Amino acid sequence: MRTKIKFDGMSNLVYPMPMVVLGSMLDGKPNFMPLGWVVRANYTPPIIAIGLGKIPQPHHTNLAIDQSKTFSVNYPSVDLIKKVDYCGTVSGKDADKSKVFDIWCVFFVKILFCSRFICIR
Question: N or C: which end of the chain has fewer CB within 10 A?
Fold first, then answer.
């Protein structure tokens, strides 16, 4: 038996999505931004895809990733909601967000490739 599913554009395909905190380093200083566009693109080898906008100008995080070629993906707990919200309301170019979280271990994913299709610059 077939069942019709109401389709209203992309919302049925991509939601819900986890909120992550994207960590980056710019000029040796940690920076953080909340990000909703992160997906597992492959299981073996493990590959993730993220989406960062650049209109009207690139995020401070885009510049950091371009400079260091690394980033971290962090899944915050609910008790960090105010800190995550703060990181999403101020730019790293205007505020020092390096002390927002207690960083005890920094692990960055090395970008092995960045195709124009996946990583729009």
Answer: N
- Rounded Cα distance, 113 and 103, in Å: 27
79-116 residue pLDDT tens: 898 999 999 999 888 999 988 988 755 555 555 544 43
pTM over 0.85: no
How many Å apart are CA 99 and CA 1, to the nearest integer?
A: 56
Sign of CA dihedral 63, 67, 73, 76: negative
> What is the fold, at CATH topology level, of the domain defined by 15-110?
Pnp Oxidase; Chain A (2.30.110)
CA 113 to chain centre: 16
